[in-house]
User: Which sequence fits this backbone?
């Protein structure tokens, strides 16, 4: 049984209320940080924890915090990215819905560390009921003196707001999120400058994922060094995995990083194996944007070592034979899955969600969808497969924001590992024509 | 000041200059093309991605190469930076890709487009694109709309460079048009088909790199290369009054602002000059406008001969006939 740092009390009845949460040791990190630590000391603990951002890119959180322009005379902002829109990812929703005070506690402690007196939770519009849960919890925190002026009698004051998005995947990209939060069209900004220098209202801003901010709570409580002992290598701590697809027990699981992938899929404690006694075909390990891997490469690396649920192990072998941990959206596919159809579904999503600002993504995503539509419906041509790969290659790395990469990677990897299926999709039509 | 090299050519520019502007200081073939960047409009650029270049060395202090190709129009230079444009096959490949993307949904209706002959996309496709298309899908189309009585919006041709929205933001008091919709369904539009009515709205036509925004007073009057451009000016209380008259005989077919070698207007003109003074007697004509030799507008366009230039050209041609390969960057100069 792995250690649980975030979801330990998730099943306690009434944990969504302030009283029960407090009884279970909640808000201890706020007391500890505000009363006994300087803001820099909190940042230092996060740095020492080695925690990497849980939103998808896996950038070390402590380092991101240290980039914040502390010399600027402008106000600083802490923004929580709750625009969880990556297909296959639903961990943040689960956490906010079940244990909203954990996020609020994390927001207070993080805002204290960064010197932010106004903080925002930007939540996707589809999570309107979660927004209501959060607002109720925020009201409780205000009433108990954990938010507002002079928290716990200290000099530190904090106002916390929840802001709903209007239903765009792109607003999960941090600069598009900031544009949207400012009330503008959610187009990603050109970087540099990065938000740490000029973010919300051109002021120094840190944007972190829900789970990242929640994880600050155990880090401050147990100390960064202690947190760093959990996990493996540079993948420290625990991670929430949203397991979905053809498994017996889909759901959100908190794992210690370093758990073997095989154990995660097949053990009763986690996914409980592939459903209907079928065989495993492929896994998308970190949300729809990361490369898909076939069974032999997801269970073991190209070197023959067992693949682990960690940032390093999953990306071992680069994109040729590896993938990414991403946001932890673990989608399992059994032997009956049509990879072409699956890829078509993904491509349709990215085409729909492209903001249209830069040309490769705006035009390329639609093109890929059209080709995959043809292939899926048996009207594809042999050249289509190569054109598809080439279009993906020309989008990748040439766009303003990572949406282009996110649209290109699944295509490139699916053709790389399952080329035969695409070729069969083409052959089908020639069979039809020849009777 | 920062010293950097672009395709091996050294240049020194003030800190904060973009790579594109540093390249323009050198000039010639190594200047990356630009479809959305516009030097006299703030915050433009970064969107079309045709100006992508490779930064092989960030600066002397931090010599790491940049991990991805960068938009040269919005990336500031560093001291000791090494930039590759034409010398990087990766850049040329990416640019070819971007041109293909830009043309993907473009109607290619050049034969009936007023912009033909002075269209940035046409030039770009000619120089960097492929001669055939691999795209077989249906192209997206939009209804043409009149935004005001002087400007026609043909959204089907638009490449979403956003320049016209910046013009409206920065030159006029109130912007009433913008981008609505998302992805390849995004379109330039006015708020519930409101008319764009402003003294400087006509500049939207000049900054449009394609034929999406055209002058309704000039629509289908003539191909641009059959007109004779002349620099002219008048005393105007609203703008500099410096314009180009596009004439056929004694008739003024249209009036535009003056564009530089990169197709950019430096002095914007007002709508009165643009739309309401279509008589030669309204203007003081300065003389013929210089048109670049490789522009199609140069057809039917005669200038006083520069003997030195002519001599050089003849020598070049002779050398070519002797079978010696011409240096590539001179072909289009």
Assistant:
């Amino acid at each position: 049984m792995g250690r649980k740092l975030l979801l330990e009390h998730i099943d306690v009845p009434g944990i969504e209320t302030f009283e029960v949460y407090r009884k279970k040791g909640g808000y201890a990190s706020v007391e500890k940080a505000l009363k006994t630590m300087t803001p820099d000391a909190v940042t230092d603990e996060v740095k020492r924890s080695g925690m990497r951002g849980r939103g998808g890119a896996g950038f070390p959180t402590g380092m991101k915090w240290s980039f914040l322009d502390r010399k600027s005379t402008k106000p600083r902002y802490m923004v929580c990215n709750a625009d969880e829109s990556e297909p296959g990812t639903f961990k943040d929703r689960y956490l906010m819905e079940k244990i909203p005070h954990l996020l609020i506690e994390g927001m207070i402690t993080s805002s204290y560390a960064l010197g932010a007196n106004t903080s925002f939770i930007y939540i996707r519009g589809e999570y309107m009921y979660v927004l209501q849960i959060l607002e109720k919890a925020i009201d409780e925190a205000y009433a108990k003196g954990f938010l507002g002026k002079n928290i716990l009698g200290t000099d530190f004051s904090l106002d916390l707001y929840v802001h709903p998005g209007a239903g765009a995947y792109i607003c999960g990209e941090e600069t598009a999120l900031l544009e949207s939060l400012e009330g503008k069209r959610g187009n990603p900004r050109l970087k540099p400058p990065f938000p740490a220098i000029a973010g919300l209202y051109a002021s120094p801003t840190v944007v972190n994922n829900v789970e990242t901010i929640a994880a600050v709570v155990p880090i401050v409580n147990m100390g960064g060094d202690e947190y760093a002992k959990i996990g493996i290598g540079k993948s420290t701590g625990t991670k929430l995995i949203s397991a979905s697809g053809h498994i017996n027990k889909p759901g959100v699981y908190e794992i210690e990083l370093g758990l073997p992938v095989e154990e995660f899929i097949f053990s009763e404690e986690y996914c409980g194996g592939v459903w209907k006694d079928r065989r495993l075909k492929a896994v998308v390990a970190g949300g729809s944007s990361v490369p898909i891997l076939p069974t032999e490469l997801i269970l073991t690396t190209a070197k023959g070592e067992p693949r682990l649920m960690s940032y390093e192990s999953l990306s071992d072998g680069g994109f040729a034979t590896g993938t990414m941990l991403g946001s932890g959206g673990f989608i399992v596919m059994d032997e009956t899955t049509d990879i072409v159809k699956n890829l078509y579904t993904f491509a349709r999503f990215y085409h729909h969600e492209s903001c249209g600002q830069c040309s490769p993504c705006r035009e390329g995503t639609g093109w890929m969808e059209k080709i995959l539509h043809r292939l899926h419906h048996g009207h594809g041509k042999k050249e289509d497969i190569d054109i598809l790969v080439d279009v993906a290659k020309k989008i990748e790395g040439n766009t303003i924001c990572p949406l282009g990469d996110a649209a290109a990677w699944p295509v490139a990897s699916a053709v790389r590992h399952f080329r035969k299926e695409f070729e069969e999709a083409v052959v089908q039509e020639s069979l039809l024509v020849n009777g | 000041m920062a010293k950097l090299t672009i395709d091996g050519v050294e240049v020194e520019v003030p800190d904060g200059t973009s790579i594109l502007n540093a390249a323009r200081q050198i000039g010639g073939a190594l200047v990356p093309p630009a479809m959305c960047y516009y030097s006299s409009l703030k915050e433009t650029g970064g969107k079309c991605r045709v100006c992508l270049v490779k930064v092989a060395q960030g600066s002397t202090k931090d010599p790491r190469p940049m991990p991805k190709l960068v938009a040269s129009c919005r990336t500031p230079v560093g001291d000791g930076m090494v930039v590759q444009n034409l010398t990087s096959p990766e850049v040329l490949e990416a640019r070819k890709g971007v041109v293909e993307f830009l043309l993907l949904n473009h109607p290619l209706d050049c034969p009936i487009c007023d912009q033909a002959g002075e269209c940035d996309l046409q030039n770009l496709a000619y120089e960097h694109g492929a001669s055939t298309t691999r795209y077989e899908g249906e192209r997206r189309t939009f209804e043409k709309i009149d935004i005001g009585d002087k400007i026609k919006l043909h959204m089907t041709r638009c490449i979403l460079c956003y320049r016209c929205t910046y013009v409206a933001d920065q030159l006029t008091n109130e912007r009433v048009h913008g981008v609505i919709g998302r992805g390849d369904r995004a379109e330039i539009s006015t708020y519930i088909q409101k008319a764009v009515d402003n003294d400087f709205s006509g500049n939207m036509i000049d900054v449009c790199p394609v034929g999406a925004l055209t002058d309704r007073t000039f629509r289908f009057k003539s191909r641009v290369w059959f007109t004779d451009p002349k620099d002219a000016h008048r005393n105007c209380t609203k703008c500099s009054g410096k314009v180009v008259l596009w004439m056929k005989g004694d008739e003024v077919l249209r009036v535009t602002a003056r564009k530089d070698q990169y197709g950019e207007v430096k002095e914007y003109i007002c709508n009165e000059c643009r739309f309401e003074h279509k008589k030669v007697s309204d203007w003081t004509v300065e003389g013929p406008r210089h048109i670049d030799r490789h522009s199609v507008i140069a057809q039917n366009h005669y200038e006083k001969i520069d003997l030195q230039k002519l001599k050089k050209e003849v020598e070049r041609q002779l050398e070519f006939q002797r079978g010696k390969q011409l240096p590539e960057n001179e072909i289009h100069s």
Chain A has three domains: 18-229, 234-334, 339-433. Residues 403-433 of chain A form the longest helix (31 residues). The two ends of chain A are 57 Å apart (CA to CA).
